[in-house]
Amino acid sequence: TLVDRLVAHGLYAATALLAALLINRVLGAALRKALDEEERLARLVQAAHNWAWEADAKFNVTWLSDEFEVLSGHKREDFLRLGQPGGAVIVRDADYHALVEDVRARRPYRDRINGFRTPDGRLLWTLSSGEPIFDAEGRHTGWRGVSHNITGERLALQQHQRTAGMLDRLLRASPDAICVARIDDGRIRFANSGFCTLVGRSRDELIGRTGRDLGLWPDMSEPRRLAAELAATGIARDFRSAILVHGQWRELLVSAASLDWDGEPATMMIARDITDRERARIEADAILDQASVGIALTRSDHFERVNHQWQAIFGATVPRPAEGAAGLPTLQEVERATQAFERDFERPDGRRITVRLNARALPLAGRSDRDGGPATLWVAEDVTEHRRQQQ
Q1: Coil, helix or strand at residue 218
Q2: What pTM, to 2 d.p., does this model score?
Q3: Is residue 131 domain-shared with residue 19, that is, in the same domain?
Q4: Which of 81, 195, 267, 273 would bridge 177 by S-S if both were Cys, CB 3.0 to 4.6 A apart?
């Protein structure tokens, strides 16, 4: 009937109107979302000093925002030809392979670090975030995202890593014994091969233990003494100490400094075993002290060492020439001499003596003339009585 037809047409019209309203609402929501996303992206780009970019489905860069050249310091054309002849090239490191996996999986990524080398050889390191773009039918059509120039930070980090790596290799290869211990509890965090050799233990036995745990210091007096030395300036030099290694005392010359080790206050100690050197010095002192002649070591005009007999002959460390007599021979006279010198000297008590002097210029290992001039070894014999008998 006519009424039924009118009702049917009315229902059709109402359905079409509802469908149109629904489509308009969906499209409007999608449009608002797109506009909001574009506005959010623009704010993000402007606020964070980033640049925006777009790429096609194969991840070929198709667009870069106006901020790119100012913020990156590179030409836009070089990156629009990314991967092509005459264009920039991405650095194929571990981060590159992670980016490739994200692109192949068509998944969003955040804070991905990638490097690019431009045709002129310069590097650009970026911190980027990106997301895939899909059309209304769910087909992947491309990518868009934002990037930030972190070249300065990245190069500084690489320099720091190189320095840290070099320092680590130097510490491990050093013949000196080096260890790092936490300040709060004294537990060892690092020990090089030299330190392992010094204490006669493996690195695994040392890490996480204290010097007292290892029996190196039977009591805490030595650590406290070193801590007091460090407290003033944060550095200790030529600190004399001793440790007990498998029941035997070893004398050490220690340099130490306070530092930050993996975020914790710590002390680095560089120790040199001077046990044998000290033993040799003591033995040499004993020989010198028992010698029947006076022995002295000078560097230029400075007396570095004399034995007791030298003091007994001259009555002082530095001989005093008698009135009208020459003093000690010069270095040139010593080098030209073929026999001993005899010179007259006056003791502090006023007595005049005649001394036979033998001298020899000699180098000191590990030292140079800049350390105070050439060294001379003197041997003195009091011949005063012998000369009187001859007269």
Answers
A1: coil
A2: 0.46
A3: no
A4: 195
